[in-house]
Amino acid sequence: MLVVLMGPPGAGKGTQAEKITKEFALLHISTGDILRAAVKEKTPLGIKAKEYMDRGALVPDELIINIMKDRLAKPDCAGGALLDGFPRTVEQAEALENVLTDLNMELDAVINVDVSADELIDRLTGRRVCRSCGTTYHLKFNPPRVRSICDHCSGGLYQRSDDTVDTVKERLEVYGKQTLPLIEYYQRKNLYFAVDGSRPIDEVFEDISAYLQERKEE
Ligand code: ADP
Ligand code: AMP
User: Fold this and answer.
1) Which protein residue has the closest C-alpha to ligand 2 atom 6?
2) Angle, to 10 degrees, between the axis of helix 31-41 and the axis of helix 61-72?
């Protein structure tokens, strides 16, 4: 099964992706994680991407499309994957379609996690991430058992450099202008499923899980 998980920054894509990939045995491919790893390693891609990420802009389509073209061609994707944070523009969605046709693969579902802008600002500014295993927490809504320590691996938690109020506002604007048109794009293809992401994490997951189970059995 090949699934796209979309939604504004902070909607809970990463949080839900962790649960979905476990339940449905899918590979988790997050373009944000790929880019952050490249930035950390200071690769040529990372150096180029950092400039865009720091100001809350999307990295150029061509760059991200090439990364995903290579990633999806790897044999580990054959068992199914969840794409988290890609596509984010109509151009990326069209490129994805072409890549999948070339690879003889097909998209099974597009899930949009929907949350209001006010809630997103609270979620993003309170987000903390484990430096070692990448698990995501929230200071108020999903805190670790011990402050600043990961429940799973005891790693230290950090705040992403793009989770500041100003950058978050820019990212939300970019989402509205560049990513929102994707909803109509996928609605027209009958692949689209919207879930109200303002509810507790487990309730959101229940809806997504029920929908994917249906798609899987079709
Ligand atoms: P995204 O990957 O879409 O940017 P995350 O999964 O990182 O979003 O979630 C953003 C923040 O909101 C994190 O701090 C996470 O713990 C918190 N969060 C995720 N889902 C919920 C929810 N349903 N209710 C409250 N907080 C949530
Ligand atoms: P995320 O972790 O999904 O919030 O992404 C963090 C940042 O990485 C974004 O603000 C963008 O700068 C960049 N990014 C991630 N995915 C994409 C994408 N599909 N297209 C362009 N830029 C992306």
Assistant:
1) 32
2) 100
Q: What is the pTM of this model?
A: 0.97
Give the domain extent around 92.
2-26+79-116+173-217
* Structural domains counted in the chain: 1
- 218 pLDDT above the threshold of 90: no
CATH of the domain at 195: 3.40.50.300
- The closest of 69, 75, 65, 63 to 101, measured between CA atoms, is 69
- Cα of 58 from ligand 2 centre, angstroms: 6
- Give the tens place of pLDDT for each residue, 45-104: 999 999 999 999 999 999 999 999 999 999 999 999 999 999 999 999 999 999 999 999
pLDDT value at residue 209: 98
Tokens of 89: 């523009």
**Do residues 56 and 67 make contact, with C-beta atoms less than 8 angstroms apart?**
no
Residue 171 catalytic?
yes
69, 160, 199, 215: the catalytic one is 160
Number of the ligand 2 atom closest to the C-alpha atom of 68: 19
* pLDDT band with cut points at 50, 70 and 90 for residue 217: confident
End-to-end distance of the chain based on CA atoms, in angstroms?
A: 11
Ligand 2 neighbours by CB, cut-off 6 Å = 9, 31-32, 35, 52-53, 56-59, 64, 85-86, 88, 92, 171
